[in-house]
Amino acid sequence: MASKKRHKTKYAGVFYLEGISATGKPEKIYYIRYRKQGKAIEEKAGRQYQDDMTPARASGLRSQRTEGNELTNDEQRIKDQAQKMAETGKYTIERLWQEYKLNRTPGKSRDTDEGRYKKYIQPIFGNREPKNIIKLDVDRERIKLLKKLSPQSVKHVLNLFTWIINYGTKNNLCQGISFHIQKPSVNNEKTEDLTPDQLENLLKAIEEDENIDVGNMMKMALYTGMRRGEMFKLQWRNVNLDTGFILLKDPKGGLDQKVPINDMARDLLNSIVQTKSFFVFPGRNGGQRTTTGVAGRRIRESAGLPKDFRPMHGLRHVYASMLASSGKVDMYVLQKLMTHKSPKMTQRYAHLRDDALKSGAGQIDDIFKHLAKEDKFIKFK
Question: Where do the domains of the chain lie, and which CATH numbers do they carry?
């Protein structure tokens, strides 16, 4: 500041100091003096060029301050600080997402959810606290999303939204919402199956493909019904060939589960050459795998399977379908083998077991027809 000499103006309580502007030329810096609640206050009103301040404007600002219509600079500073502290303490959806994300295992699933969050949740709800979100807001967003996304995709978005809020309430970070978030109804009872010829072609394509690891994963899905993500995370320490069980840590259903090792799975595991990696099916540099890449699709095409057949999850369905069709495995056992959380999820295979039971019961027809031909019916008196 070039000078600290106070220069009076024609307006009472308004003076200025001479200073230098950002461009280097002389500039007046206006101040106002007044009393508020008996206290003498002197504060800066603004700069001549930077704030477009004039003596008249400074005088008007002084009048507003003395009449109590505006806060003093100190009062405004205290208010801003208090508001900033309050904002820091708020758990908005954005802040809850950041906390929730830290507790998610890194990988494709979390990356996919982060994409959903940034594209569909953050722009609408990111700066809001859950307690201030009303049902109408969510309903409008659901309807809008259904116009451009499939019901399943919208359900994924709203499920993520629900999980974020539930994370906050369960950890006492915020108040929850006062309503249930309605999700679109989805018919996702898709159950892939393969004919004996298709299965034979698939196994042949697996043997001929150059990617042995992905081929082994596909066979493991077919032999055990394990999910793709479960195989990605599978470590050798959780494979016990002595007890004949694989321990699934933190599976989709939540609690740890055990999967029995049958003879085919045992032979497959014994054939895998163990490396320094902890993982049975390691990814790059021995770390956890996050994808099967193009190999799964290539094997599917080589086998001549339909384009909508999912190389990994489809084989899990094939495993369940074969067991149900055998007629030798009841629905409760199948539920445990599939590590389904609810028996409702296993019911999609119930008709296959019913067909097997009908086929078994139908054998009595053949028996009696054979007896009829030989005139050996038992006659009751």
Answer: 7-88 (3.30.160), 93-170 (1.10.150), 196-361 (1.10.443.10)
What's the rounded Cα separation, in Å, for the pair 134 and 194?
47
177 HSE (CA, 13 A, CB side): 23
pLDDT of residue 243: 93
Give yes or no for a contact between 208 and 201, defined as CB atoms under 8 angstroms apart. Answer: no
CB 221 within 8 A of CB 319: yes
If you ran DSSP here, which 8-state letter would residue 375 be given?
T
Nearest to 161 by CA among 136, 138, 132, 185: 138
Cα–Cα–Cα angle for 250, 319, 237, rounded to 5 degrees: 35
339: alpha, beta or left? (left if phi > 0; alpha if psi -120 to 50): left
Q: What is the pLDDT of residues 191-209, one digit of tens each?
A: 567 888 888 999 999 999 9
SS3 of residue 201 by DSSP: helix
Task: Give yes or no for residue 372 having a pLDDT over 60.
Answer: yes
CA neighbor of 317 nearest in space, from 166, 190, 138, 192: 192
Mapped onto helix, strand or coil, the DSSP state of residue 62 is: helix
pLDDT in tens, 126-140: 999 999 999 999 999
List, in sequence order, the alpha helices (H) in 90-211. Answer: 93-102, 108-116, 122-125, 135-146, 151-170, 196-208
Residue for token pair 């019911």: 347
Q: What is the DSSP letter of 120?
A: I
* Model pTM score: 0.50
Side-chain-side CA neighbours of 311 within 13 Å: the count stands at 23
d(CA 100, CA 110): 10
The rounded radius of gyration (Å) of the Cα atoms in the chain is: 36
- Tell me the C-alpha to C-alpha distance, in Å, between residue 312 and each of 251, 286, 288: 16, 21, 17
Classify 211 in phi/psi space as left (phi over 0), alpha (psi -120 to 50) or beta: beta
- Residue 353 has a pLDDT of 62
For residue 137, what are its two tokens?
A: 């807001």
Q: How far apart are CA 227 and CA 263, in angstroms?
A: 19
